Fold these 3 entries.
Entry 1:
Amino acid sequence: MSGLLVAEDLHKSFGPTAALDGASMSVAAGEIVAIMGPSGSGKSTMLHCLAGIIRPDAGKVSYRDQELSAMSDSRRSALRRGEFGFVFQFGQLVPELTCLENVALPLRLDGVRRKDAARRAAEWLDRLEIDDVAGKRPGEVSGGQGQRVAVARALVTGARVVFADEPTGALDSLNGERVMRLFTAAARESGAAVVLVTHEARVAAYSDREIVVRDGKALDLERAR
Ligand SMILES: Nc1ncnc2c1ncn2[C@@H]1O[C@H](COP(=O)(O)OP(=O)(O)OP(=O)(O)O)[C@@H](O)[C@H]1O
């Protein structure tokens, strides 16, 4: 299998439960892939293995032909900080910081100067059509605006892959679609691949390809475009 990010024959059990049982999939550079499947089928486990958050019991995950489990912990964290971005369902923004400061945070942690980080963060807020929330704290914005702040924060560092677990799960359908439209447009513009877990067909419709996880195995459904 080839691709930017490749999972081969993954097995992962939690006690007696086999969450992944020989699952393989790959993601090409710049591609938007949706992982779908019934509740409890192993979608989040697959995402966490791909992102190097959990280590599979067997099988391997490679990023740019380098196996994640063979990397040192510091190399893996550097990869997660520098090349991967994350968008989760909720609870991901720092409540004490403004939305602009939340987006600027990964840049500040990378040593970018305050002024430059703020300027780049403001550009991303603008791209996601939420420049008006820059000075507000996460508790003062809507769920959809908060998710767009999270998308901006995931992309601001120039991430090559953004992992998103039910990014619209807490939103109504109109706001969910708006987040997906802006998220996928921003990812395409910056050339980032997106790996997205969802159980909603209309969210998956924004992807180039769907992977269905069932009984711990992954099935690749090529989307007719
Ligand atoms: N940390 C854990 N400890 C114990 N069991 C777990 C853990 N994480 C996942 N599981 C189990 O592994 C299986 C797959 O879980 P996973 O979260 O990957 O499924 P999912 O497809 O993402 O589900 P959902 O759509 O409901 O979020 C489930 O049976 C789940 O209960």
Note: Residues 14, 17, 19, 37, 39-45, 199 surround adenosine-5'-triphosphate (CB under 6 Å).
Entry 2:
Amino acid sequence: MNEKQRSILLDSSSRFPPPPGVKLSYGTAGFRADATILQSTVFRVGILAALRSLKTQSVIGLMITASHNKVSDNGVKIADPSGGMLTQAWEPFADALANVPDSLHLVQLVDDFVMKENIPLEVVQSAVILLGRDTRPSGESLLEAAKQGISSIVGAVAVDMGVLTTPQLHWMVRFRNKGMKATEMDYFNQLSNSFRCLIDLIPPGSSVNVMDKLIVDGANGVGGEKLQVLKKVLHGLDIQIRNSGKEGVLNDEVGADYVQKEKVVPRGFAPADAGMRCASLDGDADRLVYFSAIQNSNNRIRLVDGDKILSLFALFIKEQLSILNDNEGDRETNSYPATLGVVQTAYANGASTDYLKHLGLEVVFTPTGVKYLHEKAAEYDIGIYFEANGHGTILLSEGLLQWLDGRSSEPSLTSKGSEQQKAALRLLAVSKLINPAVGDALSGLLLVEAILQHMGWSIHRWNELYHDLPSRQLKVKVVERSAVVTANAETVVVRPLGIQEAINAETAKYPRGRCFVRPSGTEDVVRVYAEASTEEAADNLANSVAQLVDQFLGFRSS
Ligand SMILES: CC(=O)N[C@H]1[C@@H](OP(=O)(O)O)O[C@H](CO)[C@@H](O)[C@@H]1O
Ligand SMILES: [Mg+2]
């Protein structure tokens, strides 16, 4: 940096001192904390976004959200040029920048990083950062801090895109970098057009018209608002939106995280909704789960989680691929040896993994966090990934898309040919409907709805694909959660020594028992997951392992 650049940065960063005694980490999904302590962090992430844009010579996204966390929290994360998560290679710099104690050290840190990464600051360059935020009340002032951070790097320009879902911002970044128009209206039009295309390709005879209405819990967040807009350009779907944010509190006993973890009906639903097809979005609309309330059951639900969405998508895609590859007696037709893989984490219900393997699919596991799942899924021609909590998407390779394009426009003289053409068109429509940058509750919801109509299935038929093993998740507060070190996609604890043996001994007591612990990347807790053949057994296993965690790492009085 030259003297002028240094002094601008020094001056602006001295106006954003970090809160004393707070150490933040980029974590599973960016920085998150109580909103009152985040001004300096968001300012500094603004600097990072500007540097990233200069380095990559591309548009970068900066999203202010704390997703499913409580309304008083907030957070910030970066979307890379592809629309995906910030490259993991820059996470250590993000941590160092967020925690550097004063502006003198900050300027030094930035200067060193600029040199190390060879970031072109000296030539007049322009960097463009798209800013988005969810509906949290703290969002506006944090957005201002981000703008200040961005403008403290000479040549960087912030473009405020307003209130958005997280996936909308990722989508905009991706398509801006492909030189395409990527306004919010383009997003809605693409979703509704590709949904319509899938509906138009439904084979005659499927029970398209018997689908009753879908009720959506908007978590009192941005998702409900945006779905309202999407509804206006959509045809062929009867949607009723609850918890749209006009009255209730964001994520307060509503939303996908609450529904999935507590397995109860969110607020805003009435006994008359029992049995209906319902969906729930999280606070920034990147997660989606379905459910139906059980009549007279104390608010209990039948949960149709991310694993089942994954299974539905996998079935549909597999069906289209087998239509396309059915070349028996027809040597003229070219086929494409498309690889299809599904990616899960240790939180996936064991019954879902068994089911997917039974379908003959390749199932692989990664640690928790979309950045890991996405990377793995990108290794296949079609990679489908989902976390059990409902965050996931489908990635299709460029090679396959080109081949599908060719197949869909070939003249078809036989009925098999025309079926194959339709299968190609369906997969192309899926690729346009689904968000290729990141999991997206709105596009995911439209794909689920299109596939249910294609199959002629109710939510109950879908839920019957397999039966979830009973499971329980608990959180344990410990002195230092980073003392828990895991291996093998987080299924084994290697530190503290001895705890894994104790967990194994406990798990062995339960038929179909499976249990693991890991430190959360978004909350100051250690998470415990347990699964077993009955609910009581899953609860007991989770409780006894939570006690083990407490014994090994908890707050014990001496
Ligand atoms: C068990 C669970 O749901 N974990 C969530 C949660 O991460 P933790 O690191 O477990 O706090 O938030 C992440 C970001 O949204 C999400 O990717 C992940 O799946
Ligand atoms: Mg979210």
Note: The two ends are 52 Å apart (CA to CA).
Entry 3:
Amino acid sequence: MSNIGKQYQENVWGLRHVDLQVQPGILGLLGPNGAGKSTLMRLLATISEPSEGTITWNGVGIRENPEEIRRILGYLPQDFGVYPHLSAHEFLNYMAAVKGISGKAAEKRIDELLGLLHLYDVRKRRIGSFSGGMKQRIGIAQALLNDPKLLIIDEPTIGLDPAERLSFRNLLTDLSGERLIIFSTHIVSDIEATADRIAILSKGRLISDSNPGELLRHVQGKVWNVVIPESQLQEARAKWLISATVRREDGLLLRVVSETPPNEQATAVHAGIEDAYLYLSAG
Ligand SMILES: Nc1ncnc2c1ncn2[C@@H]1O[C@H](COP(=O)(O)OP(=O)(O)OP(=O)(O)O)[C@@H](O)[C@H]1O
């Protein structure tokens, strides 16, 4: 996509001047609420059209030829509604029909996906009785019905408990291979564990697009541990960029991102993606 902009109202741009080239792998879209992640995903999924710029897939403009991308697309929106009264199997059968997959091919694919997403044993249960993680897996299963080359998942880890979050990360890795998976989150650890490329959005702008190693290079040698008395936290927040705080017996252990040691007792520590995200977002 090149020079993409999406204007919602006179002075409201969901995205502005975004250039992004994609290739197979896992692309994590990272940004706070309102950064433009869903907007970008909806544009790619051809749910909405850009106000500026062009998006091409294999050299073909998707505005003129939306079918070019829809054929190979699997999309799980953030507010995906499942049908609580249908069983997992009935729901996938219905979604397959909507997508024009029927007969033996549909049956085979549905069984494969129920297995892949660990839903086979509960395939006859009503979706309304599923946990958050199971609902999310059924959402991913429907997105995979057409074996998409491009899989877009909007904020997939919202509402998941820690164990479900972990299995989601494993699932993403299992699903990648030849396809491109784009998923969004505002939680750095979700991205850190899975993405081979990280795009950071802030206020509708793409502020970074690189692999994790390159991202870390921005903050290498700039991350420090500092212990302060708890009473000085407010003051510390005002002068330092703090990426983590841990309460200890001898005070508060702060993780600070700074070009130079924040004080004489500071010790250098290895940089993480969270530090880089904070550093780049602070601009
Ligand atoms: N339909 C809309 N009408 C008006 N403004 C919108 C609309 N959709 C999004 N916006 C605005 O565009 C900006 C980007 O929103 P978007 O939903 O893409 O962000 P996001 O990063 O996905 O955040 P979230 O995680 O909260 O969904 C926000 O300021 C939002 O208020």
Note: The pocket of adenosine-5'-triphosphate is lined by residues 8-9, 12, 14, 31, 33-39, 155 (CB under 6 Å).
